[in-house]
Design goal:
mainly alpha; 2 strands; 105 residues
């Protein structure tokens, strides 16, 4: 009679001292096959996770570029508005000092 013992977490068949060598060899072959399947599944899962991380990283890089471009456009617009405001303010000062409307606003 074969003594059936297994690993606690994955239930791989383990050899036992009471078993015949022929019985344990078959159990070890079965265990190694299951271990190989589990490792293949883990390797595939890791590869899928790495791919997902690469996709996320690419998306983040694109968002970073988009944000940088948007910020540059905002800075450019603010700079143009600041220049326009300064010019308008300069004209208002001149008009105020002279008490006239030399520059149409």
């Amino acid at each position: 009679m074969t003594v059936e013992i297994n690993t606690p977490h994955r239930s791989y068949p383990l050899p036992h001292q009471s078993n015949l060598l022929e019985q344990d060899v078959l159990r070890l072959i079965s265990a190694l096959g299951k271990i190989d399947e589990d490792m293949a599944d883990q390797i595939q899962a890791i590869a899928l996770q790495q791919h997902a991380l690469q996709v996320q990283q690419q998306k983040l890089e694109q968002q970073k570029l988009d944000t940088t471009e948007a910020l540059a456009a905002i800075v450019q617009t603010m700079s143009e508005q600041r220049a326009e405001h300064s010019e308008l303010h300069r004209k208002q000062k001149i008009n105020h000092l002279l008490g006239e409307s030399l520059y149409p606003l």
